[in-house]
Amino acid sequence: KNGSFAANAESGALGLKLYTRNLVHGHFCPENMEMIRAFAALAPTVVPLRDPLASILTAHYRNPFPAEGNYCRLVDNWKLLAGFWQSKEIFKPLLLPVDRLAAEPSTARVHALATVLVHLDLGYPRHAMEWGKEWRAVNSSGFHPLKQAYWDGEWRIIREAVPAEWRALQEAEETLRPMLEEAGYGNLMWWNK
Fold first, then answer.
1. In 51-147, at which residue ranges do the beta strands (DSSP E only) sit?
2. Considering only CA atoms, which of 87, 29, 84, 78 is closest in space to residue 54?
3. The whole model's pTM is what?
4. Which of 44, 24, 45, 46 lies closest to 35, judged by CA?
5. Ramachandran class of 118: left when φ > 0, alpha when ψ lies in -120 to 50, beta otherwise
C-alpha cells in the first residue's frame, strides 16, 4: 500500500496526498507519458539509468521470445526518454547512472545518494551512508551468458544474439548519446565510435 495516495471521500478516486513527500515511480513508455509529464513538470525528477544495451539483455534473458519478436520497443522507449529529457519539460532532472555507480568506490555511491536526497529536498538521513556503501542490486536478473559477454566486452556475441536490437541502438545513437554522456557514460560498446 502506498501512503502517498488517498481516496476522495465522494468519488473514491485515488489522488496524491497534498503536503506530504511523494515518490512516483514509472517506466518511460508511451502509455505512461501523460502521467510522467504531469509530475515531472512540477517536481524534482530523478531518472535512474543504465546502459540501454544492458536493459535489453536483461529483458532478453527473462523472456527470449517476446510477442513482438524482439525488444526494439525498449529502444523506442529510450528514445522517448531522451526526447523528453532534451525537451527540458522535466523540472530539475537528475540523471543517475545506477549501473556505473555500482562499479564505483563506495564514496562515489554515498556522494550520488547524497546528491539525490538533496535534489529531492529530503535532507540527508543518517542511514544514507550505509545505503550508499551497501548499494545492493535490486531487480537483478542474476548471472547469464549474455551478461557475462557484456561484462567481458564481447560485442560480437551480443550483436549476434540480439541483432535487431543492436541495429536499433546504433540507429538511435544520435538521439541517446547526449543524454547518456551527460550522465557520465562513455564509449559504450554499441556506439559507432
1. 93-97
2. 78
3. 0.81
4. 24
5. alpha
CA-nearest of 50, 12, 101, 15 to 24 is 15
Q: Return all residues near 179 (Cβ < 8 A) that are at least 6 apart.
A: 81, 82, 85, 86, 95
The grid cell for 25 is 515511480
Compute the distance between CA of residue 169 and CA of residue 56 in angstroms, rounded to an integer.
Answer: 10
Which cell numbers in the block locate residue 89? 519539460
Instruction: Give residue 9's identity as a one-letter amino acid code.
Output: A
Higher-pLDDT residue of 148, 89: 148
Mapped onto helix, strand or coil, the DSSP state of residue 137 is coil
Taking the C-alpha atoms of residue 124 and residue 90, their distance in angstroms, rounded to an integer, is 24
Is the pLDDT reported for residue 138 higher than 80? no
Q: Specify the residue for cell string 548499494.
A: 135
Measured between alpha carbons, how far is residue 136 from residues 128, 129, 130 in Å? 13, 13, 11
* Alpha-carbon 33 to chain mean position: 15
Kindly report, residue by residue over 40-77, the tens digit of the pLDDT.
887 788 888 999 999 999 999 988 888 888 899 999 99
Residue 96: beta bridge partners? 48
Q: Strand, coil or helix: what is 16?
A: strand
Query: What residue type is assigned to position 75 of the chain?
Result: V
For 150, other C-beta atoms within 10 Å of its C-beta total: 20
Look up cell 529530503; give the residue. Answer: 122
Name the nearest CA neighbour of 116 among 99, 134, 131. 131
